[in-house]
Fold these 2 entries.
Entry 1:
Amino acid sequence: MAESSMKDPIIYTQLERIEGPLIALVAALPGIGFGEAVRVVDLEGRIRHGRVALLDGDKVTIEVFQGTTGLAKGSERIRFLGHPITITVSESIIGRRLNGMGEPIDGGPPLTGVALNINGSPLNPTARAYPQDFIQTGITGIDAMNALVRGQKLPIFSSSGLPHDQLAIQIAQQAKIRPDLSGSAKDSEELVVVFAAIGVKHDVAVRFAEEISGRTVSFLNLADDPVMERLLTPRVALTAAEYLAFELGLHVLVILTDMTVYGEALREVATARGDIPSRKGYPGYLYSDLATIFERAGRIKGKPGSITQIPILTMPNNDITHPIPDLTGYITEGQIVFSRDLFRQRFYPPINLPPSLSRLMADGVGEGLTRSDHHPLMEQLYAAYARAEEVRMMTRIVGEEDLSTVDRCYLEFGQCLERLFIAQDITDDRSIEESLDIGWRVLGCLPREELTRLSTQLIETHGALLDEELDQGLEREKD
């Protein structure tokens, strides 16, 4: 973070209060701004960074990013820097690994370039271009059923113990733009991944550092880092993404994990500030705070770059009505939901299709974008899977032997869809063509008269796939 252009030579040394990550003092200095950067030097000469969190007359409350452990009321030197919190960015940031405050931790040289405010600049709604153009993640449950398009924000709702970290790594490594599918993409266009891990354990951080490579920028905030740093990490990452997208014209995919940890950090700091709590103790401004992060995704008219977001959050007690997933769903354009039941059956990724949704999928798939059969095939698969779930419920009551022939076909279809279509290996990078072809083969479990959402022309075109013999793979290898 930049420390130049200090506007005031006065150094304050008397603190009134130290509480949690906050310190308070009296500063009779005109022009102190909300969110202004502050430098704190403790008795041992160690520098800590902070920002102005509250102004009440001449009383100033400061959030200290590195925590207040070891600070004393009369032994610190505090200076207001006259600018907001910034991160230094340039094209050379690609390939770097940084901490949650944007400082290098990969042993490389210090960052050089321009210093940008981590809060970003609000986008004029009229300047936004509508999200479009398909991004291939290599994950069938996303690409074929809940497609991601450039400029979209599509969160993943997971739970503790589910493999969302593995999926984040896989998407970071596999996500790509398909210029051969989209006429609006150029052959030279590549996808840059900005990966931000918030409050992760050391072993998880090591795994991210080892397995995520290539055209990526990684921000790693550890579980034992100060809580204030967790509030900065997504904003620092998005500032880097905005520079790459809107200044350099690159297409950027931002993966944020875990936004629930971010929300808990916000609750902790809000409690220390004395903010009035709302549901489950979270501050009443949780919605607007999350919106300042998620709404930084998108495309701008007249600029070639784009920012696409995949926020990942864990639902406490698998509760989708918890404030964080609940409010996230209002801000974003759909959600990918994980199923603990599928995970127990050893399916990866355990994507629960019925509650999953991509609201912008219809604008990013089809003729000239992916394939002409993409959207109708998705609708048919969803409809058939819903019927298969109904048959499963009925089977628990009447038993499988009393099912009709058609119902047994749906039961087989549900098993094949989960084992062959949704499930895939952690190294399996499926193209959208492969994913759609698997979908057609799975539909071969059903009589053709049941394919009511597919036109006769589509069925004739892809009839060979419907007639192929399915390797159902019902016998799994034992450990």
Entry 2:
Amino acid sequence: MNRIETIASGEFFVTNKTDISAQAFLGSCVGLAILDTEAEVGGIYHILLPEPSSKISVPDPKKYALTGLPLFLQELEKTGARRENMKAYLGGGALMGDVSDIDLAFDFGGRTTELVEKFLTENKIELVQEETGGYFGYKMTVDFLNFKVDLSLTGSNFMQRRKHDVIPELEDIDSVIQKIKPIPQIALKVIRMIHSSEVSMATIGEEIRQDQVLTAKIINLCNSAYFNPKNKIDNIDQAVVMLGERRILLLTFSIFTEYYYKDADNGYSLCKGGLFQHALGVAKAAEEIARETKKIEVELAYTAGLLHDIGKIVLDQWVDHFYPMFYRNLYNDQNFSLVDVERKVFQIDHTEAGAKLAKLWDLPERLAYTIEFHHQLDKYDAYPYLMHIINLANLLVSSFKAGLVLTKFEEKSLMASVQHLGLDSNQILHILERIPFNNLHSFSEKL
């Protein structure tokens, strides 16, 4: 059986014939595979964006079609492929909004696809298969032993998950909510500190030191490649000084949140830790949007992003049982959203389940409101900036970090959030460049 490598966004992989299969999960990103079967050389390229926001300095050229495609072709030829024998396969580039509504400047997937098609034409490389556009994610897999390319809808390989004949009653779901371990008091203290204007390094260090496991995890993370400190961090006081009060609090709360998400890894998740990685991605995206717009505090945006899908930990075990039904409803009916399918099957959706958890945990009002109504922006207008930031963050992560969770792009609300926040396409590009899509897995693995 071939060894499988997952290609991160903004990276490519080129090889001679080998028993490796490489895969890329594509939402609005674009996947390009090029094979030369005569030379037995091939490659796969996971392209994040069409072009950089700045033409002066491009620190990571492989992220972009404009600067990365020449490097990809150069590597193929260096490995022995001949341009006249190359065959190309193209996938991804999902739409982030309805064609009739979206400003074409925001169609990053479409713009990337056009640049790739133009590049292939200019270099006389034959395009033999293309599955681009639409509102769904794709998985591109390249078998470098048999030189075959497969393009399939994300999540279709989970259709054989076990089936369950008994649909849970609302009483069963309420029982699960009551049995979920209460959020620790120190976590609630951290939330209050995050949203307080008066917090000191000494107070933070004192609270964290009360939990030895938490202290060890924070010190371990601070010494990891994710933060790459100049000097080794030996104690919590040094960690607080290195990261700052606010950042250490957000890191601490991320550790607590991961505890709840890690047990919900069978239903919504399409990979190990997928649900938490998605939540972490939305938190980081929300933080960057808040920083760009200056509409709300970045700490509030991050915390709300981390908790917005907490209700999924309640329904996860049953989603696993009914996965084929979820998948068919999501992908066969364009008008069905994820919450529509949840209500159809369980009579409750993850936002309602999350609201029950928020009440049980006595979370602050703004966080509880976001958890309950983040899919209903058109009906509930309290805390509008927070709600639109979480909505946009959710859309960006779902579109550009596909393959983490069972989802469907909620494209109708994209432009509403962009316009409410006063963002243009170049600002969105700046935000996307700052979201650490490829570090979500390594960060979650360290927790």
